Amino acid sequence: MSGNVPRLFADITALLEDMHAVAVEGQRRDNAPDMQSALVGLLQSRVATLDASLAKISLKLGGGHD
Q1: What is the mean predicted confidence (pLDDT) over 37-57?
Q2: Distance between CA 58 and CA 65 in Å, rounded?
Q3: Domain contains 47
Q4: CA distances from 31 to 20, 28, 39 (A)
Q5: Does a structural domain hold residue 54?
Q6: Contact (Cβ atoms closer than 8 angstroms) between residue 46 and residue 15
Q7: How far apart are CA 16 and CA 5, in angstroms?
Q8: Which positions ≥6 away from 64 have C-beta within 8 Å?
Q9: Structure confidence by residue, pLDDT tens digits, 22-34
Q10: In whole angstroms, what is the distance from residue 27 CA to residue 30 CA?
Q11: Treating both helix axes as pointing N-terminal to C-terminal, what angle do 5-26 and 33-60 enclose, rounded to 10 degrees?
């Protein structure tokens, strides 16, 4: 396994923890619609980052990206 792969998995773990916090914040009943929209935007951005990190792992392991 490439030496950088464990680090990429650590980065993914941190990203997922961040996404969890954003999703929990989105569950608040008193959030205004603009706050909900901002939270959705944050999650969309994080999903794109997550996808890129997964693609890097796949490439390092010799696979392609679906």
Answers
A1: 97
A2: 6
A3: yes
A4: 17, 6, 10
A5: yes
A6: yes
A7: 16
A8: 58
A9: 999 999 999 999 9
A10: 9
A11: 170
- Supply the range of the domain harboring residue 42: 5-60
Contact (Cβ atoms closer than 8 angstroms) between residue 37 and residue 51: no
Q: Are 1 and 61 in contact (CB under 8 A)?
A: yes
User: Looking at the 3D structure of the chain, how many domains does it have?
Assistant: 1
Average pLDDT, stretch 41-59? 97
> Tokens representing 41?
């935007």
Residue 51: inside a domain, yes or no?
A: yes
Note whether residue 65 is domain-resident.
no
What average pLDDT does the structure give for the chain? 93
Is the CB of residue 10 less than 8 Å from the CB of residue 65? Answer: no
CB distance 5 to 63 below 8 Å: no
pTM of the model: 0.83
